[in-house]
Amino acid sequence: MPQPDNRILIVEDDQRLAELTAEYLQANGFEVAVEGDGSRAVRRIIDSQPDLVILDLMLPGEDGLSICRRVRGQYAGPILMLTARSDELDQVQGLDQGADDYVCKPVRPRLLLARVQALLRRTEAPERRQALTFGPLHIDNRLREAHLGGALVELTGAEFDLLWLLASNAGRVLSREQIFTALRGVGYDGQDRSIDVRVSKIRPKIGDDPVNPRLIKTLRSKGYLFVGEAAQALAP
Q1: What CA–CA distance (Å, rounded) separates 23 from 26?
Q2: In terms of residue numbers, what domain contains 154?
Q3: Structure confidence by residue, pLDDT tens digits, 128-147
Q4: Which stretch is the leader sequence (predicted)?
């Protein structure tokens, strides 16, 4: 259940869709505000600091990718991007610019609610372990930062969440189904490749070999395995 102070800002120019989405989320216990103009969205997100932003990709004034990129330095909350169903490039670009997750249009209310709740749980839930160290790789979940040999690793929020999940389950194979359930609150549909894309981007950032990875291994038909011992050989 959402906390009483969970505030959501919907940035969406389709007034009817925004109203229906707001009504559904309000009925599920959230406080919801709507912004329909992309040119005003950046300032509104930074000023109001909502607990979560639902951000449409296509907006008048300024598009969602640009908004996401501009607010990331001053807004640390989760951003859920709304994208066209068939455009995987938009989804990947959204994650690259700092979005934490995405939902394809047309929006299914229950799916949207599940994604919102999953993102808020990740933000609010206390972790038993706040930091992990594997050789030169240090991952701090409290600060949401990773360092390799003392140097900050540039990760998006979505990449950090995936790295933390894999690292905190070091030595254990996680299936795509388990990863999707943990990070997105829904099961894997067998087609979404966003997890694979994120893993491919994380590997070189943490010193793993993208061609012959030793730290984050892909196990065919099984999932991903974080091999903590392999971190000793990472080059900082």
Answers
A1: 5
A2: 131-233
A3: 568 899 989 999 988 889 99
A4: none
Strands laid side by side in the 173-174 sheet: 173-174, 223-226, 216-219
Q: The domain spanning residue 226 has which CATH number? A: 1.10.10.10
pTM comes to 0.63
Residues 120 and 138 in one domain: no
* pLDDT 10s digits, 89-102: 666 666 777 788 88
Whether residue 166 contacts residue 224, with contact meaning beta carbons closer than 8 Å, is answered with yes
What's 11's domain CATH number?
Answer: 3.40.50.2300
Residues 112, 29: one domain?
yes
Report the amino acid identity of residue 39: S
Count of domains observed in the chain: 2
Q: How far is CA 36 from CA 14, 25, 54, in A?
A: 7, 17, 12
Q: Could you give the 3-state DSSP secondary structure of residue 52? A: strand
Query: Minimal CA–CA distance to 32: which of 46, 50, 47?
Result: 50
